[in-house]
Design brief:
Helix content: under 10%
Number of strands: 16
Order of helices and strands: EEEEEEEEEEEEEEEE
């Protein structure tokens, strides 16, 4: 399952999500049931085909706003269909903006076994997830002066996320990258191929 997520006290717009799957010959193909982009993102009934959005998320013709610039807001958008490919690549285009320079907790890309679109305390999603979370952490919980920070985390469904250490106990790797209040959208590419995970950001 795929899920994208949250901003507390910041605007977060997902401008587009493209998911491509690669086969053994390394050819790519676009998977429209696992992707969305504007214009004409929402249907007349305000749904996004193949996706569920909950919490404070709002879908418009051009983007999904996960949370407004108000305190303690959270929203998410979750793909309804399972991903059944051994190799995949996801391209996220997003913009994070808000008043002030400190920021909120952040947002995340999730690749989990869960099938629930429920909000929770870990970048807006449930704790004790089973799978991968790529976190775009914009708040310096541990006081290390190392945010905004992008990191990948694995969980087998038994571990709680420790907010005070920014989840260092189950981090695979990460780096600092400022993506807040930029005049342009940020593009991130999350790729899993031949059991190797890579995350690239423009």
């Amino acid at each position: 399952m795929l899920m994208l997520f949250e901003m507390e006290f910041l605007y977060f717009f997902i401008l587009s999500i493209f998911i491509q799957f690669t086969d053994a010959n390394l050819s790519k193909r676009f998977e429209y049931k696992h992707s969305f982009k504007g214009p004409h993102l929402v249907q007349k009934d305000r749904t996004v085909p193949f996706w569920t959005y909950v919490g404070n998320a709002i879908a418009s013709d051009d983007f999904v706003r996960l949370a407004p610039s108000l305190k303690s807001q959270r929203g998410l958008i979750w793909n309804k269909l399972p991903v059944e490919f051994p190799n995949w690549e996801v391209e996220l285009t997003f913009k994070v903006a808000g008043r002030g320079r400190i920021g909120a907790d952040g947002l995340a890309f999730w690749y989990t076994t869960g099938n629930e679109a429920l909000t929770g305390p870990v970048f807006g999603a449930q704790d004790n997830w089973n799978g991968l979370g790529v976190f775009f952490d914009s708040f310096d919980n541990d006081g290390g002066s190392n945010n905004p920070y992008i990191s990948a985390h694995l969980n087998d469904g038994t571990k709680k996320f420790d907010h005070q250490t920014d989840g260092n106990q189950n981090q695979l790797g990460g780096c600092m990258r400022d993506y807040r209040n930029k005049p342009f959208a940020t593009k991130a590419k999350v790729r899993y191929e031949n059991k190797v995970l890579s995350v690239c950001v423009n």
